[in-house]
Amino acid sequence: MSYQLELRHYRYFMAVAEALHYRKAAERLFISQPGLSRQIKQMEEILGTQLFIRDKKKVQLTPAGDYLKKELEAALSHLEHTTKQVKLIGKGQLGEIRIGFLGSAMQEVIPSMLLQLKETYPEIHTSLEELSNKAQVNAILKNQLDIGFVRLSRIPRGLRIKPVFEDTFSLVLPKNHALNPSNFKGIEQLFEADFILFSQDYSPLYYDTVISICEDAGFKPQISHKSVHAQTIFKLVENGLGISIVPTALQHGFQLNVKFIELAKIKQRAVLSVLWKDDHHNLALKHCLDLLFDS
């Protein structure tokens, strides 16, 4: 009897590839473990190659299985999103835009964009997820996001990036700190301070830029704490555990005992860019990009 690969084979394969455990994968799929094993074996026979190495202790992907998993992540995500888009369009909607963002984008760019979308294209659905730069890139490549708001200088092939907002940096100090806008001369006055920064993994460009700000002032900063949330950074500053340098837009919306001194005279700027897949076919995303770049 000849068989052909069907969508169910790929879904069964991904469940095992993600769990690396047949029983857990079968429970997730609501099928029996022997039935799942038969499906995977059938898939391997059709492909003529082994996808898993299985013994009594563990399940591992073969090189072929690992390659298939990586390729299917994007393909199945795209298929799932396409199905959702078709249902929305069938109901008279324009589809959905899945948006990734850094926290600082929520201060200026995203609220304005969402309001414009609501006014101009009320039929477009939106979803938001706060993620690091790297996580946004990976999600867009895997078709899990349509658009991202990032601080990046380099991107993988297949993606497009365009600046949408340029901001200054500001120094963040405890409310009772001796420095203020009238006696502040330069960041070199704080060469002995402990710095609290956004994690390098969360935003490498931001991290490197802050380091360059300090190096231009003649010192290398002592970094005592790192975080991925502005609220955490400001709370640590408030409690006297260090100081920080952040994009100026982040000073809005936090009710904490910290103060900001804008570093308007330095050359560095905090550039926020929009990121999307070059070969997208999402009409709702096209409308969103048009609004961003025409505004």
From TrEMBL:
It comes from the Bacteria. The keyword rRNA-binding does not apply. Coiled coil: none annotated. InterPro entries: LysR_HTH_N, LysR_subst-bd, WH-like_DNA-bd_sf, WH_DNA-bd_sf. Keywords: DNA-binding, Transcription, Transcription regulation. Residues 5-62 form the HTH lysR-type domain. PROSITE patterns: HTH_LYSR. The keyword DNA-binding applies. Gene3D superfamilies: Periplasmic binding protein-like II (3.40.190.10), Winged helix-like DNA-binding domain superfamily/Winged helix DNA-binding domain (1.10.10.10). Belongs to the LysR transcriptional regulatory family. This is LysR family transcriptional regulator.
